[in-house]
Amino acid sequence: MNSPFKTIGLIGKPHHNGANQTLKGLHDYLTQRGFTVLVESRVALALGVADSESIVDLVQLGERADLAIVVGGDGNMLGAARVLSRFDVAVIGVNRGNLGFLTDLSPQDYLVPLEQVLSGHFKSEQRFLLEASVYRHGERKASNLAVNEAVLHPGKIAHMIEFEVYIDGSFMYSQRSDGLIVATPTGSTAYSLSAGGAILTPKLSAITLVPMFPHTLSSRPIVLDADCEVRLLVSPDNQDDAMQVSCDGQITLAVHPGDEIIIKKSHHQLKLVHPLDYSYFHVLRNKLGWGSKLF
């Protein structure tokens, strides 16, 4: 096959029978068609891949692959995306999870659309990430990337915290709430949506700040230019010394009273590819149960 992709990486959902079944089918299909196939180490174990040359970790896969196929749910895609965004590798997903906003190929009939993608007939888009960093006494203590959102929240359930919000160095407001969600357009259909945030279409260069259970009715979500720097100054009077910044609900950074959190657009971008008939609004309609056409 004359394909823009020569080396293809497989990433999956460990110990999931459905995902392993799809991964096995993909491995056989791609190998038979002459592609160089790299298999992420946890997947290789589940599939019984013995060729040590083709077994890699995520970083090695990002360095060597032209295309990465993620089989699983959006959580698997998010975990892979934080690593793969550092490399020039295209990413596509086969949905073996629940919602599947990011993994849009159906596990029942993924081969036909995948064949189109492999032959060069696909749509491509860039999704930006956020970088969240925690500073203590002016020293950076921890940082990580987020595809969906970075969330400041207390360590204890239903525990109010106090913090100030600065945008590009200008004071915006102080808040007493259960936390704050800072979401990308990709993340606007995730945790942010559950908290009452707006849906942002993927091409927007914007981020949304969504307060979590604020202790005032005047506190509302706000949409900002994605190039803004968001600085959260945590009150030193907070009683909770186990606060956290959570990145995509998967990585947590410890936050203490008096800490400063900087959240800004990362220079890393995730390169997603889709079949030509992919429609973002079709995905929204399906996943959110919106009404069908009237006429």
TrEMBL record:
Signal peptide: none
Chief localization: cytoplasm
Keyword Nucleotide-binding: yes
Residue numbers annotated as active site: 74 (proton acceptor)
Cofactors: a divalent metal cation
Gene Ontology MF annotations: ATP binding; metal ion binding; NAD binding; NAD+ kinase activity
EC assignment: 2.7.1.23
Subcellular location(s) of the protein: Cytoplasm
Keywords: ATP-binding, Cytoplasm, Kinase, NAD, NADP, Nucleotide-binding, Transferase
Positions with a binding annotation for NAD(+): 74-75, 148-149, 159, 176, 178, 189-194, 250
Record family assignment: Belongs to the NAD kinase family.
Name used for this protein in its record: NAD kinase
Gene: nadK
